[in-house]
Amino acid sequence: MTDGAPLESTRLDSTHLDSARLDAQFAFLNEADKLKQVLRATTLTDGSRRENSGEHSWHLALYAMVLADQAGPGVNIDRVIRMLLLHDLVEIDVGDVPIHSANGQAHGSAEIQAAEARAAERLFGLLPDDIGPAFRALWEEFEAAESPDAVFAKSLDRVQPLMHNIESGGGSWTEYNVTAEQLHQRVGTKVARGAPALWDWIWARAERFFRHA
Amino acid sequence: MTDGAPLESTRLDSTHLDSARLDAQFAFLNEADKLKQVLRATTLTDGSRRENSGEHSWHLALYAMVLADQAGPGVNIDRVIRMLLLHDLVEIDVGDVPIHSANGQAHGSAEIQAAEARAAERLFGLLPDDIGPAFRALWEEFEAAESPDAVFAKSLDRVQPLMHNIESGGGSWTEYNVTAEQLHQRVGTKVARGAPALWDWIWARAERFFRHA
């Protein structure tokens, strides 16, 4: 371990090829910065402001670390973490589509899916060929929600906004007039599929917001 | 894979013990939410606002995924990612201490280190015993900056603000009147130690901001 390179001359060590590779890697990382400006329907737990999709992605990765014991057999938590770090990047081009917006019809529509595929093409296409396609495959695996890793990652992505709505006193449920049935259909089934005990625990805390719905 | 549990009765499946465990896990996850309200000296790449430490942690984990090829031998990128997801949590109690503030004397002072240790005690202490101590150990490993994983994680933590200052036209260097020598000493040596080629590449892009310093 060296104590640092001299100020000058070190640039000469880098080949042109290395430099172009880092150019591509940082083009992607700088573009990714824009995810911090995409706002979600859900607020922070204290209700003070809307959450952005960058900080949301961090929080979800932390959820995966903390709630690893809720994952089913065969789930690789490190892959889940990587998946969650990438899962919302397409929103840089498409924006966040709240799950309860347009009476639950917008999220996952063919139109949105096509726009997200174009965004993935553009964003992951910024990266070198040995990185971009692997990232895109991980994002597609998340979207398909079939592999054990993706099913668990989706559960966490659904459970975090529930927690924030509980903490902030109803949050986006009130805003979108969500009923218990809609919540169960759009969210509960997805959480329970990947983490059944988590759904039991969270519904026990959410149900009071739906008693008069 | 089930299609979701029935709305009622599922709560009875959870034992009291499971429930208390999830209470602790979510006490930590809800407390962690506060990291999104800790502001850093550095702005987003477009200079529009200060970055918060939650979204910064996400961005750094993405840096680790994208720049994995810059890591030295023996570095485990998945451990680096986990380390970076946790590395700033103590700021919930202590706040962000900008590296160039108080003429570079505040960051890493004994006083700040003691406050951060108390914060770690409180925050990781919210978690069950099979999670909290392991998280705390990972954070301490990062702080010690001795293991290959921690040295690489520290390089990324130093390089990201450089990139943001370059993109935003000088950023916190201007604000704190940082000289090339100070940058090299406080930042360059740390980046070069874990990722020498990365330092070469970034200094080639940063040096124009220091020509008249």
From TrEMBL, chains A, B:
Cross-referenced Gene3D superfamilies: Hypothetical protein af1432 (1.10.3210.10)
Keyword terms, alphabetized: Hydrolase, Metal-binding
Pfam families: HD_3 (PF13023)
GO molecular function list: hydrolase activity
Source domain of life: Bacteria
Start and end residues of each HD domain: 32-199
Protein name: HD family hydrolase
